[in-house]
Amino acid sequence: MNKFTYSYPTKVYFGKGSAKDALTQELNQYGDTVLLAYGGGSIKKNGIYEEILELLKESNKTVIEFAGIMSNPTYKKVQEGVKIVKEHEIDFILAVGGGSVIDCCKVISAQSLLDEDIWEMEYIKGKFPTDGIPMGAIVTVSGTGAEMNGGAVITHEEKKWKGGIFATTPTFAVLDPTYTMSVPRTQVLSGAFDTLSHAMETYFGNSDQDNVSDDVALAIMKNTVDNMLRLLTDIHDEQARGNLMWDSAMAENGILKCGRQTDFQVHQIEHQLAAYTDCNHGQGLAIIQPRYYRYILDHAREKLTKLARVVFNEDTAEKGLDALDDLIKECGLPTKLNDLSSTMKITPELLKQVADTTNIIQSNPYTLSKHEVHEILLECM
Ligand code: NZQ
Ligand code: ZN
């Protein structure tokens, strides 16, 4: 095991009715003015908005709304939120949504207490924020696990870049599976694939042998696949959605990363693809991930074989990858880049730009060159 420090700053309220428990127990610690942040309006259609607003009123909070946080949230949207936070002297930020809303709020929180631009601070000066407006997260779509960490993934449109910004960790997270029941089938399954990818990409980073983190990662992968298959039989299976919701949080709350390095090369490629195309995160991963593992197969055979055995009950790495392909197809997730919804026509030239700007990770089984990233992306067309 490598040296590590682990703490659990996010208090989790899991299960039906948890929003009431969380808001009544947590909000009295903060000032009166709450920023209620959400996305494009799903919470107004499924009743979550009214429920949360009522709870905020019962807690005697003054509510300022910040709506329209888009999937793949932009740096511009972050600045819009910061302006509102400063104007209204917000005491607490409540993010109600998925990874996009939660991530946008994490950066709004940190940027609001800084005198300098957070992107420049982190990427040019190598400094990281130590403070932020306190925030909580109410998860309405799961997969990213964004509710239990301080990392945010933001698209900087001017820089044609999508990547991580270290910002504020939510002090509490509400995970009520019933809130996810209105999430459409493709999003449920692409979110679950994101969780699978997080556990896989952690597992494939450097670790010593028989590391407990590897075994926990395998257990999360297996449980995620089992519950994805359950949803294929009944997409409204609330218990399966709940299992996936906790898998999602477990995969990204840091527990799998203790004492080891991570890979996350597929995430780096997908994020940059999204910077150019605004594609759906889980769907982009579902296309790239199998090609990546086939590309690095000879460098990761032992771990892939173990994964094949534990997660897919197959005895070779190749059969495990075939099972991964089958799962993606059964879930109806896209298998080619041209199946993605994109703001740009995906061409080999565009993919060259994606490859050239992709962050290369050193701790994975094989360090790719930019040329090889391009080759993998071309195989995805
Ligand atoms: O915007 P609304 O109208 O709310 O609709 C959303 C959105 O269209 C909809 N939705 C959310 N809750 C719903 C619902 N629809 C019906 N019923 C509900 N209860 O779902 C759609 C997707 O939402 P979004 O938040 O974009 O999805 P997700 O949670 O997958 O987040 C994706 C973002 O998170 C980043 C991704 O890169 C992407 O930007 N990630 C964040 C990570 C982190 N912070 O740890 C790690 C991940 O690897 C990932 O990169
Ligand atoms: Zn992800």
Can you walk me through this structure?
The protein is of the alpha/beta class. It has 2 domains: 11-179, Rossmann fold; 185-379, Dehydroquinate synthase-like, alpha domain, CATH 1.20.1090.10. It has 15 helices and 8 strands. The protein has helices at residues 18-26, 42-45, 48-58, 75-87, 99-112, 118-123, 185-203, 212-233, 238-251, 265-277, 281-295, 301-312, 317-330, 348-357, 370-379, and strands at 11-14, 33-38, 62-66, 92-97, 135-139, 151-156, 161-166, 172-175. It has a 6-stranded parallel sheet with strand order 1-8-5-4-2-3, sandwiched between helices. It has a two-stranded antiparallel sheet with strand order 6-7. Strand 6 and strand 7 form a beta hairpin. The protein is globular, with a radius of gyration of 20 Å. The model has no long low-confidence stretch (mean pLDDT 96).
Spell out the blueprint of helices and strands:
Layout: E1 11-14, H1 18-26, E2 33-38, H2 42-45, H3 48-58, E3 62-66, H4 75-87, E4 92-97, H5 99-112, H6 118-123, E5 135-139, E6 151-156, E7 161-166, E8 172-175, H7 185-203, H8 212-233, H9 238-251, H10 265-277, H11 281-295, H12 301-312, H13 317-330, H14 348-357, H15 370-379
Helix pairs in contact: 1-3, 4-5, 7-8, 7-9, 7-11, 8-9, 8-12, 10-11, 10-14, 11-13, 12-13, 14-15
Bound molecules: 5,6-dihydroxy-NADP and zinc ion.
